[in-house]
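A quick aside before the break. I want you to see a complete sequence-to-structure record at least once, exactly as it would be stored in a machine-readable document. Don't worry about memorizing anything.
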Amino acid sequence: MVRINGEVVREAVHRPRPAPGTTLAERFAAKYCGIRPAASGAPATLSGALDNYFNRRAMGLREDPEGLRNMRAERKSLETLARNAEVDPAALDTLLKVQHEYDSFPRGDKAKETLRSATRERLRLLAGDTAGRDQMLNDYVLATAVIQKEARTFADRMTATGADLD
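That is the input. The structure line, written in tokens, reads:
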């Protein structure tokens, strides 16, 4: 409240400060469109998750028209798969971040084998026993078969770089 000579002239309006890192566009979307980013900082939409990954890839393919066409087709197939399977945008964003890391730093055969055994052990600890781990691995095989069928080039790159083991 604002006082002048002891009289209340105006009540102060409390306006919370925007969260650090939010852009004007995010605040506008939240206020007028009801679109809110995910709490973890991950994109709130599938398109946002795909943009994060494929825009970075596109930067490296600026001088390669064929590579850009292939990348756009890959994005379209992955987006269709994610929409049809109702994939959570945060989960897709995590998958694409891992793939970007492996694109940037591909693993050698020995590192892939080490990663494979470490992943199996992590899954066993997560599941609590080997039967649970084996069920998780079977679910993974089914999921990768769908990715291989619907987004073949993406699945091939996951396998080539070793991202499918993480």
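Two observations worth writing down. The chain has seven helices and two strands. The two ends are 56 Å apart (CA to CA). We'll return to this after the break.
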